[in-house]
Specification:
The chain is mainly beta and about 130 residues long. It has two helices and nine strands; from the N terminus they run ββββαββββαβ.
């Protein structure tokens, strides 16, 4: 696991990784109950499935936008998508990047109706990502 730094959104908490897949390096989430239906979160994962593997695993995922971007001083691919989780519409925004630590994927997720109010805050938190921080 590489050393990482990410400024969580005000009031958000880092969750324990116990029970999470071994590739998950960090999970931060909104306070429990603050957003009914789906708890908004940011998840950093070491390694990343290919876009084809992702499409296979998330059959209800629909790409809204995909573009080249920069994150943590590295080129990345930013994808904005829509997904269904337990009958709820969820917006998924993710950044895939590579570096000396290997590939990483940072994913921000929230209920579709919460996204307009969280998009700028997500971007501010995501922009603070530092890999190899020590």
């Amino acid at each position: 696991m590489s050393a990482v730094a990410l400024e969580a959104l005000p009031g958000w908490e880092a969750l324990e990784l116990r029970g999470a897949p071994q590739t998950v390096e960090l999970i931060v989430a909104a306070p429990e109950g603050a957003h009914p239906g789906f708890r908004p979160n940011l998840v950093l994962t070491a390694g990343a499935p290919s876009l084809e593997q992702q499409a296979e695993a998330l059959r209800s995922f629909h790409v809204v936008d995909r573009t080249a971007a920069e994150l943590a001083g590295r080129p990345c691919v930013r994808t904005l998508g829509h997904h269904e989780v337990g009958g709820r519409a969820v917006v998924v925004e993710e950044w895939r990047l590579s570096g000396p630590e290997g590939p990483h994927e940072l994913t921000a997720s929230c209920g579709a109706l919460d996204y307009p109010g969280l998009a700028d805050a997500f971007m501010a938190s995501v922009a603070s990502l530092r890999l190899g921080a020590g």
